[in-house]
What we know:
This protein has helices spanning about 5-10, 20-30, 30-50, 55-80, 85-105. With about 110 residues, it is mostly helical. Helix 3 runs parallel beside helix 5 and helix 4 (about 55-80) packs antiparallel against helix 5. The chain is elongated.
Amino acid sequence: MNRLATVATRPTPAPAGSPLAAQTRLLVEAPIVPTLLWLAAPNVAVMASQGAGRLLWPLVAGFARLFVAATGGWIAIHWFGYGLPGLFAAIAAALAVYGTTVAVAVKAGAWR
């Protein structure tokens, strides 16, 4: 059974005071605000793009985010064995790609 299936099929969560729970909480809570800014700010531009009828670049950015998260997470877990921290890093990188792509598209005049 691979590592991801082991984590996904764990019968009970870690107890609240265990080191695993503390490590997971640290991994989730520490980088959450900066990472979510890479999601929230581009979503404003995506909604404006919908209003302007120009959805090509937001769609490209969304597919790029999916690709980076899926392949980066798979590589982090299976090739490098980073586990949950590697998966979180891949998702954060995917959000950065998403935000950067939307920002560059808007700056370059995607609404004209």
